[in-house]
Amino acid sequence: MAEKMPSYTYLRCPQLLLFIAEAAGVSREKIESAYNELKQYEDKNHLHKTEKHGSYLWGNPVFQVFKSQLCIYDLVKITKNSGSWDEVKDKAKAL
Question: Is the entire prediction scored with pTM above 0.85?
Fold first, then answer.
């Protein structure tokens, strides 16, 4: 039986998305921009240094901005269509 490929569509944890983007080689500027967006949201809503569940931004417009700054949709396509992690990193650098 063929194994089903994992889906990255429903990843909601901002910290995990930052980790994935950094590991894949998304530019430092984009990662810092997304991080700053996240930090501003958490500071504004007094969430800094509080325990949060992984989907605390789900449905919030800030989350869409955050994901677009990390190029998550493109990164998901690259990850699905690449044959190796080196290929993912090479393509992610071009984002």
Answer: no
